[in-house]
Amino acid sequence: MKFYQSLKKLPVIKQVKPWVTVGLVNLVLLFVLTEAVLFLLIWITEKRIIYFSPKRVGNHPESFVLTKLSQKKSNNESILVRFHPFFGYVLKPGVYNHENSGLKVNNYGFFSPYNYPYTKTHSNQVIIGIFGGSVASDFSVNETIDPSHPRTLIQKLQSLPQFKNKEIIVLNFANGGYKQPQQLLILSYFLSMGQEFDLVINIDGFNELALSPLNNQAKLNFSMPSFQHFQPLTSLVNADLSAIVSMGEIIKTKQKLTQVNQQLNQCQLAWCYGVNQLRIKHLSKSYQQQVSDFDQRQIQKQSTAGHSEKSLIALSKTSEVLEDTVAVNQAVNNWFESSLMMSHLLSMRQIPYFHFIQPNQHYPTERIFSSAEKQMIRESPYHQAARKNYPVLISKAEQMQKYGINLFNAVKILDETSETVYRDSCCHYNQLGQDILTDYVAQSIIKTFHP
What we know:
Largest sheet: 5 strands, parallel
CATH architecture of the largest domain: 3-Layer(aba) Sandwich
CATH topology of the largest domain: Rossmann fold
CATH superfamily of the largest domain: SGNH hydrolase
Strand content: 5-15%
Structural class: alpha/beta
Mean pLDDT: 83
Low-confidence stretches: 63-76
Radius of gyration: 25 Å
Number of helices: 18
Shape: globular
Number of domains: 2
Helix content: 40-55%
Oligomer: single chain
């Protein structure tokens, strides 16, 4: 009441009508109350005081690329991927350049400070190749952004005699959406180009299961690139006007989502943070619905008789949509055979190969999820496929281990922390999750060399 009385005594308040005064005072009180409630909510869920520690965007390359995308004006500039005759698709070379770390999209369309093939500049260098999808790409970027940090694989491997005082060069051959046999094909290609490797790491498993159902629905062979990632480019090549218009709408929504996310991370008031959180939730649902609708329309077109004959892109098709169990077994067998081939290619050259099945929030383990992670799981289009089919892949992985391959099942490594480790509804980690994965990879390699 004292606060209310003091407001009424203000000169500005005295000059307006009583009902206006009451309205203004109530608005101020509502703002203060809302700010207090949201402040407490942020403090409880994120363990931080927003006024002193605003949330900042992490060093994920996707964030930087999407920021660049949001600044583009023409549709042509907004297309950040390109066809590749052997890899399926890659990022547009030069679309991103991070001056501080030297990270860029290189001449082959991968996030890396180096153009490929990379040649050693002195004998003290050790080259580690990273293969897989977006999680593997993030893993590589984490090594590039701050290679001197103790949490990186580069620093952890210094404990091994063969790496002590060596300059470790991490080369990224992973991109978002990649699944076998893309890793195998990329490895084969660069080996044929004379690329040297002293050690190769493959982080995969999720994309092979989460993305394959769409291939199956579109009657596209599992050996083909991800339908979700590849089809938009195919539509552009085939001048599919309706698909191009839909992609334009999806890009606009993604741009808005990126812009609001930037605003969110600059908020220093709780109400600003709360409002932008709601906007992000709404835009995220819109974006996921647009992508889902686009995928379904493209699947219907792919199923239409004669559609493939009109396309300029030759894709291996199946005669019918396979029953779920048959489809999963084929996808897992493709992953198994491709992984074996990677191991054989490298063993012939006496190059150590380490294979990791990536953890995700969909396959059930003993992990206790944070409230933010529970919401992400409910919103994910990949949840059912990963939850249902990961056991099939893990069972096949055990068979692979019997062949003497250094394969490690990392699905439970995040169980020991109750803090948030995922940053989206797909499968990607925040810095804590990334650090846990990096440490697991490093310790697995160290123990293999020195059991």
